[in-house]
Design a protein that fits this description.
Helix content is 90%, strand content 0%. It is an all-alpha fold. The longest helix is centred in the N-terminal third of the chain and has 31 residues.
Length: 68
């Protein structure tokens, strides 16, 4: 793996994590606005974070079949 490919892979990974954090923060905020307790809101945020990462992994796996 060349340095350029490694840099692109690291950048893409960081971008996915940032999007997952943003989605989790939005889910937590919406849960609190809906009247959920702090623990319940954090559980929704954690679920959203995990769901975004799982979706990104599934899309990456599906696209990897077409790239090779």
């Amino acid at each position: 793996m060349t340095v350029t490919r490694l840099a692109i892979a690291l950048f893409a990974t960081a971008l996915v994590v940032v999007f997952a954090l943003l989605a989790a923060a939005a889910a937590c905020t919406l849960a609190r606005l809906d009247g959920a307790t702090y623990p319940a809101a954090l559980m929704r945020a954690a679920t959203t974070f995990a769901a975004v990462l799982t979706l990104a992994a599934a899309v990456t796996g599906a696209l990897a079949q077409y790239l090779h």
